Amino acid sequence: MCRKLLIALLPLTALAGCKTVGPNFAAPVAPAGSYAGTFQSGKAPVAIPGQGPQARWWEVFGSTELNGLVDKALAGNQSLEASRQTLTRSLEYVKAVAGKSQPQVNGQAQVNHQQINLSNFGLSGGALGFGNPEFTLFSLGGGVSYDLDLFGGQKRANEKALAEAETQLRETEAAHLTIAGRVVLQVLTIAALNDRIATQQALVDEDLRNVKLTDAKRRGGDGTMVEVLSAQGELAADQAGLPQLEQARAEARNLLAILLGVAPSELGETTLSVSSLRLPQEVPVTLPSELVHKRPDILASEARLHAATAAIGVAEARLYPSITLGASFTQSAKSPDDLFSPSNTAFSLLGGLTAPIFDGGTRKAEKRAAEAEARAAAARYRQTVLEAFGQTSDLLAALANDARAVSLRGESLGIAERSLHLSRRSFQVGNSGVLQVLDASRTAQQARLGMLDARSRQFIDVARLYLATAGGWTEPATAPK
Question: Of 228, 267, 311, 320, which has the maximum CB count within 10 A?
């Protein structure tokens, strides 16, 4: 009997894996195009086309304090830790899905005490001189089942789980890159605010000297109260700017602490200034053809497209029959000592086929929905690539424009400082009034602030360009298998 059943099932086992429905995934072709403009030589820093920045790109700024803060963030940031644990969960889920492709084996053991109701069989225990009999049955056994995966639905489910795990892997890479970039940008912001506060304080100190100067001239009979009030007004205005800058620095420090994964009170001093940082002379920029293979957000979008493509196969396989093979084995006896006796053995073999007949169009609708999701994932991939190209193009333009701005601000500062020097000399020999000195001093201080802003923006845009093309912040990760 068993032999006949096995012979009957052989044709079904031969069909296993004979077809895998659904489209096979192929890596998408990146949208045609490149960055706006060209890589032009000019004042440093200049963009150099190549393989992109080094792994630890933030080290180009030459600050051990900055390097230490980035390392601390990569080790302690809680959002990054959550992303790592989510990746671990995704990898375990891959194993869970893959396990469904293997034979499912279960075991069981049972002790069952029963009383037979003889009246169910037309007998009466009382008429026979005894009551309904009782007995205890011991049983031990197990079973195995195996889905032939006739149309590859389970294979596509495994493929989908792997693609989803790769998506999370790329998102974790992107999280590393993002956290490192945010720390660098935050430190640069704090450095710029430190310099701006120092410059603003120097402006206040200059205003105090001007107040004393105008007041002394007024008391000496060479000045007027209008000049004193004008100097005092400028002093009050510049002093009013300090609290706003201090607040901005406090908020920047608090955000940096959050990025590091510590309380703001645990951050410590951040005394960096823009002048203490080194501006790289050259910024290597990944070519467009390579950017699509390096940026984690693009790779994550590609993996989502892969998962959506595999989901079509999962949905399509549900339109077709499924075949399951199974077997069970049981040893039963009224005494544990007889449990393994050959006479107490029972087994069964089965082959089952399940096929959809009518479901109101549910399965077909699910397949169409999966196809629509795949088209949407393809569109999102193309959009991600275009945004990456646009972001890099913006920053390439910023690199050139920032260099021009710094150069022009430098010229303006040089002119303003020379004008202030000449105004002071003219005032000392009595050829001009104090208001002319005040105006020249104000112009020079504003020029210093403008130069500081331009220089700070240059550092920040360089960091953002590194960030935009730093897809390989570590060695390229291997996708889950």
Answer: 311
Q: How many CB atoms lie within 10 A of CB 238?
A: 20
- Residue 97 near residue 157, CB atoms below 8 Å: yes
Mean pLDDT of the chain: 86
Helix axis angle for 78-99 and 153-219, nearest 10°, is: 180
For the record, the structure tokens of 345 come out as: 């053995």
The structure's pTM equals 0.83
Tokens read off for 152: 């590859």
The DSSP symbol for 142 reads E
CA–CA distance, 369 with 189 (Å, rounded to integer): 46
Task: Give yes or no for a contact between 316 and 22, defined as CB atoms under 8 angstroms apart.
Answer: yes
Percent of the chain at pLDDT > 70 equals 90
User: Does residue 189 come out as left (phi exceeding 0), alpha (psi in the -120 to 50 range) or beta?
Assistant: alpha
From the list 330, 326, 327, the residue with the least C-alpha distance to 140 is: 330
The owner of tokens 């792994």 is 55
DSSP-derived letter for residue 45 is: S
Q: H or E segment at 107?
A: strand 104-115
Task: Give pLDDT tens digits for 234-257.
Answer: 889 889 989 999 999 999 999 999
Residue type at 351 in one-letter notation: G
